[in-house]
Amino acid sequence: MRLKRAAGPVFAIAASAAAAAAVWLAPPTAVPGPPPPQAPPAESRQPRPPVWLACLTPLEEALRQPVTVYRSILPSRGLAAAAIVRPSVVLASYEIEHHQDGPELVNLTLAMEALDRLVIPPGAELSFNEAVGPRREERGYLPGLMFAKGKVVRGVGGGVCVASTVLYNAALLGGLPIVERWMHSGMTGYAPPTRDAAVVYGARDLRIRNNTQNPIWIRAIVEDGRARVSLLSTQRQPLQVRLVEEGPAFIPPPLETQPGTEPAPVIVDEGAPGCDRRLIRQFLKNGRVVAEEEICRDVRRPRPRVIALPNASRDPATVSPTPSLEEPVPPEPLPSGVAAAGIDAAGLPPRPELDGPR
Question: Can you list the domains of the chain with their CATH numbers?
Fold first, then answer.
């Protein structure tokens, strides 16, 4: 009997606690209001960018389309490393305004797309011609403007050299060895002497070597009148790079005259400027030069500007180019017996005549 009387209060307390817990754990009463936002369908959700993209803040615009699928220049090497690791630093990035349009822009875009997302394994060489392939019409390339023997002509693949030039400058700034590089036979509008790279499939190539211990990823993008190549890796180079250019980058063409049959002067050849310029790459540590190398020396003889004159002699005569605004123009000789600035002209020696026609 005593046990039953003691169990009664215990059961009452347990029942009260159970009732309180039921009230406490009960779901809250729904309050009228706007419905909660619904998650978008799975097919419309944007994937989160990879972690390594956050390390490329200087190149957010250039690398705003991250892709995890890369192609190695060597089928049996590089893909495994590219699948395991991701680039976290930018070795170098170079960008130019190409001013290309029409067929030249089509050819440039095809070449840059062939370079984009390539992986250069450690110790391997990248050949531009092998990576881009032959420039043929059946592969989408169109006739565009290009240089041939110093003159501008039209040929299939014109404009591809802009891609090789951007890649060449990125490799220069990244400290990568330049195995092969050729200059153009004429002055380009997008790169000065020693900073351009001419390519001809089967004849002239651009080759760079990955002398680091890590793979190098290539991003090549063409947009808004600019072409950009970025070299990415997992570790920065231990030395800084500085490019030094020496020598004249512009040598004006001389002027040649020849007899003409027209009553007015006729330009036979516009001519072309020349250059004699060297490119030196210096490697610095803590602001001090620890090593340097000569990358190239571009020597181009100027092609004379030829003008046919009605009364010119039969032998071509070469005269100096027309002085520019920055150059002083020699004064005309004074008439005989006329004083200049109060000086007695009679006591001065006769003024020598200028050479060549005036």
Answer: 48-237 (no CATH), 238-323 (2.20.230.10)
